[in-house]
């Protein structure tokens, strides 16, 4: 069994998938299992998978029910102690990223979830910024911000115990998973480094209307106890959750 399983999901993103795979196989630390889950692509993505077959432990291409269904599918096929979801188009920050991460993990106590900083790259505007995470997480932090799934290692047994990502949402299920894990008392440890680069050109980055609708549903149906205590929340103007407070305020009045 490997320490780590890296899972990349893809649908009709040939160039993005190649970029992701290359960032994985170039890592100096190689004690990981690599899984690619494709949603039935027709753009040549499968040729990319075939070209890198020697580096991929498991792959499948078939229609799925969305991003989180595909990610859950990858988790079910995984054997590693920890899961890292690095989806098509996103990359590990440099060739030493995993080596640096594992070295720091070994200096810390065992944890259910390790999380790092995340580089956010905006190709359209040719800008990038670091999403800096706090050393200690709080519920208030989660109501205004996030930790990124491409920069987090989740213990596989914890992921399975929690039932994986909710497939009731198309954008925010990774955020919801971390909130629920925090509320359930699972342990989080911060590692002060940039593990991955996330490109702001996907559904979760551009689907603000759908994102807002999903956030509202979550707070109405699953986290209503937070919405009932607005006074304890502080406003954190961190994209893409900058409208969280406004939504919670609306929910509270209904």
Task: Please explain how this structure is put together.
The termini are far apart. Helices cover 37% and strands 22% of the residues. Strand 6 and strand 7 (127-131) form a beta hairpin. The protein contains eleven helices and nine strands. Strands 1, 2, 3, 4, 5, 6, 7, 8 and 9 form a nine-stranded mixed beta sheet that branches. Helix 1 packs parallel to helix 2 (45-51). With 254 residues, it is an alpha/beta fold.
First-residue to last-residue Cα separation: 50 Å
What's the total count of β strands? 9
Percent of residues in helical segments?
25-40%
Order of helices and strands: EHEHEHEEHEEHEHHEHHHH
Low-confidence stretches: 230-245, 247-254
Specify the overall morphology: globular
Find the structural class using helix and strand composition.
Answer: alpha/beta
| Assembly context of the chains | single chain
Number of helices: 11
Note the main sheet: 9 strands, mixed
Taken as a percent bin, the fraction of beta residues is 15-25%
The overall pLDDT average reads 88
Q: Give the radius of gyration.
A: 18 Å
């Amino acid at each position: 069994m490997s320490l780590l399983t890296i899972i990349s999901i893809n649908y009709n993103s040939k160039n993005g998938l190649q970029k992701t795979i290359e960032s994985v196989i170039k890592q100096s630390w190689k004690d990981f299992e690599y899984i690619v889950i494709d949603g039935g692509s027709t753009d040549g993505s499968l040729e990319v998978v075939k070209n890198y077959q020697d580096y991929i432990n498991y792959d499948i291409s078939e229609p799925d029910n969305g991003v989180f269904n595909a990610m859950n599918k990858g988790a079910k096929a995984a054997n590693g102690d920890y899961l890292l979801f690095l989806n098509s188009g996103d990359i590990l920050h440099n060739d030493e990223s995993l080596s640096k991460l594992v070295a720091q993990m070994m200096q810390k106590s065992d944890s259910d979830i390790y999380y790092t900083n995340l580089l956010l790259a905006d190709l359209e505007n040719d800008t990038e910024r670091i999403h800096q995470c706090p050393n200690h997480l709080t519920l208030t932090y989660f109501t205004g911000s996030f930790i990124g799934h491409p920069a987090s290692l989740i213990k596989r047994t914890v992921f399975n115990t929690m039932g994986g990502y909710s497939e009731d949402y198309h954008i925010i299920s990774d955020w919801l998973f971390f909130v629920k894990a925090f509320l359930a008392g699972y342990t989080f440890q911060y590692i002060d480094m940039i593990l991955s680069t996330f490109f702001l050109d996907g559904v979760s980055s551009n689907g603000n209307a759908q994102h807002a609708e999903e956030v509202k549903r979550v707070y109405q149906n699953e986290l209503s106890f937070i919405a009932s205590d607005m006074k304890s929340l502080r406003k954190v103007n961190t994209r893409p959750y900058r409208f969280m407070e406004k939504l919670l305020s609306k929910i509270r009045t209904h």
